Structures are given as structure tokens and as C-alpha cells.
Amino acid sequence: MTDGSISGSGGRIVVDGRPIEFAAGDSVAIAIMRSGKVPGGGGTLCLAGDCGNCLATVDGVAHVRTCEVEARPGTAVAGDPGHGKPPLPIVDGRDLTRTPIGRELGVRRIDVDIAVIGGGPSGLAAAAAAAAGGGNVLVLDADSGTEVVAIYPGRSIVAREPAGMLHVRADEIVVATGSAEIQPVCPGNDLAGIVTSGAAERLQAAGVGLGVAVAIGSPPSGVACTVLDGRLIRFEGDATGRLRSVVTTNTDGSEMTTACDTAIVGLGRAPRDVLARMTGDDAISLVGSVADEHPLPAAPTAGEICRCMGTTVDDLASAWDAGYTELELLKRASWAGLGPCQGGACLPHVRAFIAARTGTVPEPFTARPASRQITLAEAAADTTIDAFRRTPLHDEHLALGARMDRFGGWWRPWHYGDVVGEYWAVREGVSIGDVSTLGKLVVSGPDVVEALERIYPCHVADIKVGRSRYALLLNERGHVMDDGMILRTGESRFVLSFTSGGAANAEMWIRDWVDTWGLRVHVMDRTMSLAAINVTGPHAKELLARLGLAEPPRFLGHLEADIAGVPCHVMRLSFTGEAAFELHHPVDGSVTLWRALLDAGRDFGIRPHGLQALFGLRLEKGHVIVGMDTELDTTPHRLGMDWAVRMEKPAFIGKAALERTSRLPDTRRWVGFAMDGEAPPEGSPILGRDGDEIIGNVTGSWTSPLLGRALLLGWLKRTPFPDRVVINGREAVVTATPFYDREGLRARA
Amino acid sequence: MPALEPLVGRRVIGDPDALDAAIWSGRDVVVLRLAPDEAFGIGATAVELDDEHAIDESEAGFVGAVLSTADLADVIARVDWSLPSDPSALAQGKVAGVPAKLLIGDPSLLVTHAAYAGELADRLGWSS
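Output (C-alpha cells, whole complex):
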């Protein structure tokens, strides 16, 4: 097909390990064709970036349209596999957090009045008209190196440039992306050696010979070829997948076979409007041929309709017969349109397929970013993962050898290297834990008691100043959203605590209801203003006495006191099952307080405990952790916490739902289990006694150093609730909680 | 390279009208109006306002950095939302993906919660 001669060699690229010469100005695809090969794995080549038939891996980046990449000396090209995906670059299987191969890309941002996508005659005319009107106009043209890949709602354009990504915000967007040539659908359309008329003209201009060429439909301009008049029936090839002949109809209906090296198809054009179909924004207008009506070719009867995904007309018919008779559904069921060209090649034919069966031409399907294959670096350019907060003790934890982990939006110490040692320090000595992450709100106002009575399912008005009460937070459906403490600090002022991940939601929840009810209540979130250290264990009281707390509050009491010179709000409660004092204090005093506690408790064998030990300690007490143990529709009753709900109250959020659901049968209970041996993994399925039906799941699991057996918390979801179950192949006995200190004497000591 | 330093002062939640008329005591107090019912007086030692139920707390949970013109440009390059058109307005949103506040003026001030200080400094390349 080509004589291989090159006038003005630009150098050599390496294709599948073999160097080939290219001419100055060649794209990689044309350079490959100049060498007598075909880019991609066959199918009609458009050489205009519209199809996915010239994809290859270029310089390590997969799925690159070689027709859009300029050949440069040393460019390395590897053919994409005919089926499946190129292998992902594995950097280091041991550490997947390391930066993968590739460079980090920056983002350039521009705000303009009008962005014109496409630098052809229509686009430039639109840009000139806009500029004449006084607007700040930006033309984004792929041929000039700025390829738009997406338009997002809000008129936000994402484009890639040679140096990185470009994000443009525009008041108006003009799409002038022109039109694409329609590809043939018939048997043999996956052979190599078929090109569109436009591609033939590009090859001719580049001096690439086509061999014996025939044209079907509108012939190319200036390309030597034999024009076939009849209707295209099929392409025929050899065992290598190479085109050898074209079969068309004669005027009498008989078939005519014409031998050739290249078949050139000119079947008309369709709007290249994938970008315009990404949003329904009225401020996006179309000019030029992109604004034309979508044509409807003859309905396809055989062949590959979506070369990108390998979808044949038979596949489409099968999906249709299975009931997927709407365009969007047919697309999903057959995968037609899901590949690299995003329907650029198959959309006209899929619409024609449907129109032939229904008599109605469907609108083109929705397009979604990105319209082109982009790398992860391009997609991630200048994006950031969520920021996790650090408590003021973060560096103290690191200095103590803590393994930090992310939990509830914070970095928290998971353990300090000896979970069991940390556990025993709490049970038998004294330990400190960083609970700065707890949600902390201050609420104040003349209507604050009324508001809290309506919000919480427990009584609030009878909490005396200096006292506190554990409370659940329910939504309107009576489902548990959060839990924490209500501490009264004045007649019209309270401190509320919440779980670490729940503070922001709780603040919004309370503010919304207060506004809805028109109550006079102020709400201040102090979560990040105050740190908190939990001092817990049999020697906690003595330790605090050494640092100035001569008269600690009694259980569920709280007071203000200076400890080690740091002003603290001291709260007496217990999550660990031992005597415990939470010291809430300004964040700038936290390191001083932490170090003072460690110094003063040295002879008690004080050591800090991390989350892992804390979870074990709480599990022995059967305390719930909202979010870990609960599900979206967990009620207090399912948790066995009816005691936290006072249904005699006139009203509270969720009461009506609890009244209604209390009359319905319920098949869920959150209960304790005990079993011999090591604790099974959290999340383990719970099986019935016969071992063949999953009837629940484990939410918490811990091998108790004190009790010498595995203790678990989890859900039973079948009635009648069994008293024995199977977990991890072993028998577990349903056991009442708490597992430890049932009377709660140690917490009150 | 700028550094995020602790900011101390008083933070108040109160009636918006009362906050509008609040009298702040302290040296070189800079008041950030975080919300209609919330203000943070950097450097404030006391505040008087006509709302007996206002929540008025000592505040040490923020950090801030004074920005030169060049620093400000670097910070704004990490802002992917529209800044307020009023140049003296307090802009609140994410900087480099971290919740922050930006007071553009002479000089400009970048503020965030102390809990985010390490993450923000890392992302802005300010960590030593």
C-alpha cells in the first residue's frame, strides 16, 4: 500500500520494539501506516480523533489515539491488546500508597465571558463576533494543543494542554467542534485497510500510498480510487485480518466483489457534539456543523456496531429481545457507546437500529465526562483527598511510638505497640487516652431546655447544674444518629458531647430544629477549640489529686478545675468500665497537661492507651459505638437501650415513629456473644446452629485478657432469637452484657 | 516561607444585631465575622454585647499566617472556588482541600483550625 519513501525524514519512532522512520509532521498513526502497518487492531480509521481504532500505548500511556499524537524521535509505541486492557503499572505491591509512575500535573485556571470550543471557521467566526461585542473570549482548539475533555454543570470546562490541565469557567460556551464521518457497519468492518474519505485525503496529503483503492459512497477528493456504485454488503479479508475485497450490490441486486488494498468509505457526517451533550445548560450554544441534525443511516443488520467494545448487531438484537428497548438502557445492556470513542462511531447506527424497530428516532444518549481517555494524573490534577484533622497531641503520640490511623475524620493513635499492656494499665493501674476528637457543643439561651427536651429522647429539664446524663440522638424515624452526654453548666446553658465523627452533623441538626421551632438558642461548636484527655483506671483519682484536683466530681458529675495549671472542664463518666475523668481543656494547654499526667503517674505504671485497647475495654462493658455497631435503621429497642428513651415525655424527635414501630414485629437484636479461643474478625457472619444460614454479623470482637475468652457484639436478624450460634466455625453463646462488672461498681469507685 | 501561628482571642455566638454592635477589648483586635451569629476577635481579651445568652469563650483553636503578596498568590492558586467580589470580605472555603478562611487585605491573613494546621502546611509546602 505504501512505497515507504520518505522525503524529509523526521527521525524514527519505535513500534512494538521495531524502529520505523517517520516524515516531519507525521502523526504516530500516519507514521505507522507509512511503514506498511496499521495502527490499532483493525476497523475503519478516521485519522481525525473520532473513532477508537488507532489506539495504542504511547510512551507508557495506554489508550492513546495515535492519529492525534505527533511522531517524535524515540516515541515508543506498543499496540493495545486486541482484547482486554493493557496491564496497570504496578509500582510496588508492598506499598500502594507510593506515588505511581507519572508526573504530577498542575492546573491553570481561567475565568472568561465566552469560551469557544473549536478553532475551525465556525469557531473563529463565533469568537470574532463575541469579541466584537466586548466579551472576554477564549478559543480552545485541540489542533492548537488544547483539547477539551469535559464540560461540567456550572459551565466549567476541563481541557488538557501539553503542560498540564486547564480549567475554564465561562459565562457562555460556544461549541464549534464540527462533525465526524460516519463509519460503516457490515460484516468485515473490523478488518484492517478500511479508511474514511477524510482519512484517505490525509494519507494522500502525507504521501502515504493506499495501493489499490476503492471508494464506497462519497469519494475522497484528489485520491486515486475506483468508485463503487452499489450498496455496501460486506468487506472480505484474509487470515491476517487484512482487507482483500469489498462486496457491493449490482443494479440487478446481485453481489459484486472488488479486490482492493484499501476501501474508502464516505457515508456522510454526524455532529461531533459529545461535549454539548454533557450538560443541559442553556448557556451552551452550538455553531457550524456540530449544530446539524443527527443523520440516520440505514439500520444495521450485521457486523460490529461498536468497535470499541466489540458489540455486534447480534449483541444489540439480543439486548433488545431481553427488553432493553430504550436507548440509554440498550447502551448499558449492550455496552455500545461505552468505549473510548463514547459513541462517536456507533451512535448513529444504534439510533437507526431502534428507529427501525419502533418507528421513532430516539434522541442521542447522554454524554458524560470525560469525552477522551485521560490519565489518572490528568483526572487528579490539583485535586486533594479529604483533610484529616490532627489533635494537639499528634506529635506526642508519634514520639511515643503510636501507630496512627484515620478514624472519624481524625488521625488517632490505634495503639502504642502493646495493646494488652495498654488494656491492663486501664483495668489495674491508670492510663490516659486522647479523646480530643469527641464532638463538643455549647448551647445557651432562654429556650434551651425546651429545645433539648424536644431533641433528646431522655429527660433534660431535671438535670441539675453540675450533673450530666447519657443520651441518644434520634432522627424522625426513631433511628439512632449519635450518642453522647448532656452536661448542664447553667440554668440556660449546656455542654453536649457527641461521637468523633458526629459533631458537625449534630450541630447542623440542632441548629436546623431550633430554627424550625423558632426557639431562642445559640449553638457553638467547640470540637476543634477544646482538646480532651481521658484519665481512667483505679488510680485515676489519686493521679488527678497529685495535679491539683482535690475534690473530683462524683459519677456523672462535672466541674471546672485547674489541673497541672491547665483550666479543665472535668467530667466524671466511664466508657472503659473503670473510674474515668474526661479533662476538656483549651487546645494550647494539651501538651502541658498530657506530659504532666504521664510524669505524675510514673509510679502507677501509667501508659497511654490507643483506640484498639479502648474498643476492647468498651466491648467488655457492652457499650455501643454509633456508626460501628449501628446500622442506618437501628432503633434504641434493637440495641437493648429502651432505658435511654422516655416514652412518657410529651414529645421528642422520633417518638411518633417509635410508638408506631413498637407495635410491629421486630427481627433484629444487637447482643453479646462469648466463645472459647481467639476472637474472630469483626464483620464475621453469624450462622445459625446448623451452620448453613447467615443470621447476623459481628460488629465488635475482642479476646479479653481478663476473662480469657472471646467476647463479641453483633446483630441477630432471625427470630426466634437463638441462644447459641456459629461464628467462624465455632460455637458462640449469646451472653447478656456487660460482660464485666455488671453492677458498674468500678466505674463509680 | 509563611508559618501558621496560633491565634488567640475570643469567639462569640450571639444575636447578629448584638454582634454588629459588640465592643471588643484587646490590642490590635481583628474581628472575623464567621457567620451572622458568630465572630472571632483575634487578640481580643473581652467583648461586650447586648445578649445575655451569648456564648463567649476564650478561643485558641485557630492558627493563622500573614501573607505577602507573593504568598497570597500562591494560596489563591490553590483555591478552586470563586473568591468574593468584595475585596475586604472574609472568604471561607477550602484551600488545597483544607477548610480555611482568607482575609484579603494589607496584609492578608490565612486562617484555619489548629487541627488542620499540619495538613494545610504540608499541602502548601510550608512544612519544614
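Strands of chain B lie at 5-13, 23-35, 38-48, 55-67, 90-95, 98-103, 108-113.
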